[in-house]
From TrEMBL:
<keyword id="KW-0456">Lyase</keyword>
<dbReference type="InterPro" id="IPR013785">
    <property type="entry name" value="Aldolase_TIM"/>
</dbReference>
<protein>
    <submittedName>
        <fullName>Hydroxymethylglutaryl-CoA lyase</fullName>
    </submittedName>
</protein>
<dbReference type="GO" id="GO:0016829">
    <property type="term" value="F:lyase activity"/>
</dbReference>
<keyword id="KW-0479">Metal-binding</keyword>
<dbReference type="Pfam" id="PF00682">
    <property type="entry name" value="HMGL-like"/>
</dbReference>
<dbReference type="InterPro" id="IPR000891">
    <property type="entry name" value="PYR_CT"/>
</dbReference>
<feature type="domain" description="Pyruvate carboxyltransferase">
    <location>
        <begin position="14"/>
        <end position="283"/>
    </location>
</feature>
<dbReference type="InterPro" id="IPR043594">
    <property type="entry name" value="HMGL"/>
</dbReference>
<comment type="similarity">
    <text>Belongs to the HMG-CoA lyase family.</text>
</comment>
Length: 311
């Protein structure tokens, strides 16, 4: 049940970024204590995950689940296995992330003005300008900086988001010199054809930038999109243990693609992961965190169905 880099140079290799501690928990109604969040990070590390989005630096009154960002990082940053990522929305968030000892930050630029205004109070152009300053300041602080283009596949307020619009936003983001560029299906509306079009379009703009993708499984297309992304040249995928999470602007959202289910898909598709990850251990963590959240069961399926064939 463990997938890692053992193939030839022609074997696709994907890095998994574990996002359960941030995007998985952020919109859950039950606010978990810091020690449970720290345990989630440790269990993820024990399973072989290394790059983990630990928290977000947001206003506590707006995102209560992330109110303990500094306290949580203080609990886990001493673990040498961890590469910690903090999500930031502005310069103040960056300052907090640097002071808390994050190894990396991810800034957010929303592809649609509707969600940008609703989520951060400024339009897309202003977010791109803010990203440029965040990127420069992060570089000066010696912290890696990625930027994620949210609502790359659709917006709950503006409707469909065209590939042309996403590529226009991508150009603006690339001007800031990110260490990595990510695209996100924030509300889970995208399909593989869109994935291929966006990735090929970005590659035409910049053939070298490392690409990352973040999918939600709201309409059961998240895993198909993940595979399409890998086949198109994306080398980093976000996933959430247990499939927990969601978006407050997407009614009925079932959450992020589950890390354990993604591992099964990649393994059976001949795609290696950059570190050895124990899918059974991830699935057990998914079952555990679902119980801590008071969920009847984790949205991810591997914890219920098991690996095939059984080992």
């Amino acid at each position: 049940m463990t997938s890692d880099v053992t193939g030839t140079s022609t074997t696709p290799v994907v890095e998994i970024v574990e996002v359960a501690p941030r995007d998985g928990l952020q919109n859950e109604k039950k606010v978990l204590p810091t020690e449970i969040k720290a345990e989630l990070v440790r269990r993820s590390l024990d399973a072989g995950l290394r790059r983990i989005e630990v928290t977000a630096f947001a206003r506590p009154d707006r995102v209560p689940q992330m109110a303990d960002a500094e306290a949580l990082l203080a609990e886990v940053t001493s673990d040498e296995r961890l590469t910690s990522i903090g999500l930031v929305l502005n310069r103040k968030g960056l300052d907090r992330a640097v002071a808390a000892g994050c190894d990396e930050i991810t800034a957010v630029v929303v592809a649609s003005d509707g969600l940008a205004l609703k989520n951060q109070g400024v339009d897309t152009r202003a977010q791109i300008e803010a990203w440029h300053q965040i990127a420069a300041d992060a570089k000066q602080a010696g912290v890696k900086a990625s930027v994620i283009i949210a609502a790359s596949f659709g917006c709950p307020f503006d409707g469909e988001v065209s590939t042309e619009r996403v590529l226009e936003v991508a150009k603006g983001c690339l001007d800031g010199g990110p260490d990595e560029l990510a695209i996100a299906d924030t509300i889970g509306v995208g399909v593989p054809a869109q994935v291929r079009a966006i990735v090929s379009g970005i590659r035409a703009i910049d053939g070298e930038i490392p690409l990352r993708a973040h999918f939600h499984n709201t309409r059961n297309t998240g895993y198909a999109n993940a595979l399409a992304a890998v086949e198109s040249g994306v080398t980093v995928l976000d996933a959430s243990t247990g499939g927990i999470g969601g978006c407050p602007f997407a009614p009925g959202a079932t959450g992020n693609i589950g890390t354990e289910d993604l591992l099964y898909l990649l393994d059976k598709s001949g795609v290696a992961t950059s570190t050895a990850i124990d899918a059974a251990q991830v699935a057990a963590t998914g079952t555990w965190i679902a119980k801590e959240l008071g969920l009847a069961q984790a949205p991810a399926m591997l914890g219920r169905a098991g690996w095939f064939p059984a080992l």
